[in-house]
Amino acid sequence: MPSRSFLLKMLSLAIVFGAWEIAGRVPVSYAFPTFLESMRALALLAIDGTLFTAYAETLRPLALGVLISAILGIALGLWIGLSARFDWLFSPIFVVMQSAPLAALIPLLVMAYGIGLTSKVFVVCIMAMPVIVLNTASAVRNTPSSLTEMARSFLGSRLDVILKVIIPAASPVIFSGLRLGISAGFIGAILSELKITPTGVGDIITYSRSIADYASMYAAIFSIILLAVLFLNLLEKLELHLFRGNNRGYVTD
Amino acid sequence: MSQTRAAPRSTVPLAADIAVRTRDVSKHYGTVEALRNLSLDFPRGQLTSLLGPSGCGKTTLLKIIAGLIPATSGQIEVSGKTVTGPGPDRAFVFQDFALLPWASVLRNVAFGLELRGVARSEREAIAEKYIRDVGLAGFETSYPHQLSGGMRQRVGLARALSVNAEVLLMDEPFSAVDEQTRRKFQEDLLALVANENKTFIFVTHSIEEAVYVSDQIAILLPRPSRVSEVIRPTGIRDKGADNIRRDPEYLDIVDRIWASLRSYVE
Lengths: 253, 266
Ligand SMILES: Nc1ncnc2c1ncn2[C@@H]1O[C@H](COP(=O)(O)OP(=O)(O)O)[C@@H](O)[C@H]1O
Ligand SMILES: [Mg+2]
Known about the structure:
The complex is a heterodimer of chains A (about 250) and B (about 270). Chain A is an all-alpha fold. Chain A has ten helices and no strands. Chain A has one domain (about 50-240): Orthogonal Bundle (MetI-like fold), CATH 1.10.3720. In chain A, about 35% of the residues are buried. By secondary structure, chain B is an alpha/beta fold. Chain B folds into two domains: about 1-5 and about 20-90 and about 165-265, Rossmann fold (3-Layer(aba) Sandwich), CATH 3.40.50; about 100-165, no CATH class. In chain B, about 30% of the residues lie in helices and about 25% in strands. Chain B contains seven helices and ten strands. In chain B, the strands form two sheets. Chain B has a six-stranded mixed beta sheet with strand order 6-7-8-3-9-10, with helices on both faces. In chain B, helix 5 (about 180-195) links the parallel strand 7 (about 165-170) and strand 8. At the A-B interface, helix 7 and helix 8 of A face strand 6, helix 2 and helix 4 of B. Magnesium ion binds near residues 58 and 59 of chain B.
């Protein structure tokens, strides 16, 4: 039997799609297709293969950028969280990055790195990395000091304390940073395709808008959201699998 | 477990029988002077309580002995060796238990051994023994959040016992458990002191608890903290756990300590 939470998710999806369908039929705007029209367009894009060649293009900067952001971001976050000096040095950079207007930075990136893959990867990283770094750093700093003291009193080395206490204790917040960072990375990937050169999914969006094929445009947007949601769910599964005890809450009372 | 001590340890021990010795220990936290020239001897195989109002530096002294924080000046010796950091001769029981919430009872109890690099099968066998000893058999695969406060502290105690250190440092270990559990713990502690040949340093702010469990009580006064008095409730130690609280000497000592502490309580 499907679980209650699964049924609730399905219900909320049905409500959202139902509202979309109604808004499309009213219509809210001539440029707003119904849900069913968009799904038909999505099926067509999938059948003629356009969607898959587009994703082959889009996923490259996305995957690369997300991977770099995750590895570098967590490493930097750990470093910043563990050392007061690096906190002082690097934290402001990421706070600024997080609030920088990306659209204004893109021309600079293009000037420096051209219109190829490098610039797009940079955009994804600029979007994804700050929240990963800042979440990781604050999670590390908020490790309960009694746990690190406990590990030290039982002769844990600095590395033991980091690997066996600080990282597991910080992992829920690190993972939530990863989730936020990856969502932002998806936005960055599409943004870079809209602002730098129209390729991949960004190209479908730009092109179908230019020929007023709004159903295909929304189909492309829908597909990227779907992909993001699926990926984030996968990440959640991985987290539950890796740190089974962490959803059990802290024991301090 | 027997509830009476194997032998009454009523005499002041020889210098060689001092397990832990603090000499002129001072500690400043910035401008806060937590300890000043504190000197105290902890006899081997006995339980010494550090008793005093909260904020008087009991935890600070215990952490300095544990090697977790450095003293500003002064020296700590454990069996004649000067303390420079945490060591295998000391194990800590924490006031807030300090259990890993993501680890099972078994892994928590074995964690001290894990950090010492003991192989998994060996450390789990040792941990299982101490889990049985503290009365938690059957809870090996439970997680801390599934246990009551008293059970969590038993996990903390089992973890400290399993590394087989000579000196057990206990920071108000029973303050976060309910009164009934606390009394049971106090009786168990008496049995533990009698049966394990370990030196216990026990922090408490409860006068009754200190008199009930201690061979020696050091009364600390705030701040900067120093030892105002050392009391050895020798007469009541071999009375048996059930009779101590009715003993006139027990009541006398409780009164005497209260008389000397009451002026420090607002
Ligand atoms: N890390 C710290 N930084 C600054 N002051 C501290 C710190 N730890 C303890 N103190 C101060 O030192 C004094 C003694 O604290 P503590 O040893 O925890 O007392 P107790 O355990 O007897 O309640 C208190 O006044 C406390 O505020
Ligand atoms: Mg304290």
